[in-house]
């Protein structure tokens, strides 16, 4: 049953993409911003007090929606429909492809200014002085990493815990994207959001990396995963990015500027730097992975029947 619900949600995402008028995650982000502005003042950003405030904020923002999702999903007549809609809202496969395609189109047209603007919707790093190669690299990295966050991780937690699992995962993932920085502002307040996301992503990230290995250049992807993932700052993004770079036989990583400061990131992958055509290759890898997961899910359901 869960595989049918997941397939329905993926088809809806493929047909319609993310909701245009009001996306639940956009509304959630606004609420999170308002709470963070109120609780994380410049006078309360240090020590255990700030961590407690951040942890309490995470609980207030994630527990009620997850509990509500559990209640609605348990209703016999409406539960399955709610589960489909919840997963549809949590998925971002078509949206990821659309953002990536916009960057690729701008690069192909030689419009570097537009390409920088478009990739700025996908990444948190500074894009104003990127050259075409930097833009392509940022887009490919974003597709690979968000393949885990917006597709595979969401499907995993829907598989494990239904609609409440998908809701909790995407809310935690959103909070980590907003607060999970080691800047002065978020070093303590965002600690709980970052740790929750690390826990929820531990298994999905490695399954995502394995998916990239299976569907890409397997030998290179596995080698890069084993030798390079540990050098990446994030314990979950490391396997995903290293395996994805190897699967595509591209060189990713390297220095990037965030909020005016350069960060020396290790190199990932093997091969040439990505060009605009490699953005589509990354999207295709994620899409194939999504369909593979659904096929295996259905096969598992048939064997259990």
Structure description:
The chain is mainly alpha-helical and 305 residues long. It has eleven helices and four strands, in the order ααααααααααββββα. The protein has one domain (2-304). The protein has helices at residues 2-16, 24-39, 47-73, 79-90, 93-108, 112-119, 132-179, 191-215, 218-228, 237-248, 276-304, and strands at residues 251-253, 256-258, 261-263, 267-269. A two-stranded antiparallel ribbon has the order 1-4.
Number of domains: 1
* Spatial order of strands in the largest sheet: 1-4
Order of helices and strands: HHHHHHHHHHEEEEH
Indicate the multimeric state.
single chain
Q: What is the makeup of the main sheet?
A: 2 strands, antiparallel
Overall mean confidence score, pLDDT? 93
Count of strand segments: 4
Distinct helical segment count: 11
The 3D shape can be described as: globular
Give the class from helix and strand content and strand pairing.
mainly alpha
Alpha-carbon Rg, integer: 19 Å
Low-confidence stretches: none
Cα distance, first to last residue? 11 Å
Give the fraction of residues assigned to helices.
Answer: over 70%
Range of strand content: under 5%
InterPro entries: Cobalamin_biosynth_CobD/CbiB (IPR004485)
Pfam families: CobD_Cbib
Pathway: Cofactor biosynthesis; adenosylcobalamin biosynthesis
Function: Converts cobyric acid to cobinamide by the addition of aminopropanol on the F carboxylic group.
């Amino acid at each position: 049953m869960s595989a049918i619900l997941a397939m329905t949600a993926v088809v809806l995402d493929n047909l319609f993409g993310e909701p245009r008028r009001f996306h639940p995650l956009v509304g959630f982000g606004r609420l999170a911003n308002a709470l963070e502005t109120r609780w994380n003042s410049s006078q309360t950003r240090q020590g255990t007090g700030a961590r407690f405030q951040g942890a309490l904020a995470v609980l207030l923002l994630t527990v009620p929606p997850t509990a509500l999702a559990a209640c609605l999903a348990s209703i016999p007549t409406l539960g399955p429909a709610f589960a489909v809609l919840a997963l549809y809202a949590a998925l971002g496969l078509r949206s990821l492809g659309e953002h990536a395609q916009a960057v690729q189109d701008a690069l192909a047209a030689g419009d570097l200014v537009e390409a920088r603007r478009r990739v700025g919707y996908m990444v948190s790093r500074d894009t104003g002085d990127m050259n075409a190669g930097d833009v392509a690299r940022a887009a490919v990295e974003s597709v690979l990493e968000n393949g885990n966050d917006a597709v595979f991780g969401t499907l995993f937690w829907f598989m494990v815990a239904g609609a409440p699992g998908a809701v909790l995962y995407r809310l935690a993932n959103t909070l980590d994207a907003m607060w999970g920085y080691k800047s002065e502002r978020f070093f303590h307040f965002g600690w709980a959001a970052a740790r929750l996301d690390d826990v929820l992503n531990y298994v999905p990230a490695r399954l995502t990396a394995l998916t990239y290995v299976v569907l890409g250049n397997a030998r290179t992807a596995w080698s890069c995963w084993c030798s390079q993932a540990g050098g990446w700052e994030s314990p979950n993004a490391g396997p995903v990015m290293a395996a994805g770079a190897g699967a595509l036989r591209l060189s990713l990583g390297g220095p990037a500027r965030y909020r005016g400061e350069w960060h020396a990131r290790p190199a990932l992958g093997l091969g040439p730097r990505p060009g605009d055509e490699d953005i589509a290759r990354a999207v295709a890898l994620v899409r194939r992975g999504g369909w593979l997961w659904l096929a295996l899910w259905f096969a598992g359901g048939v064997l259990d029947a």
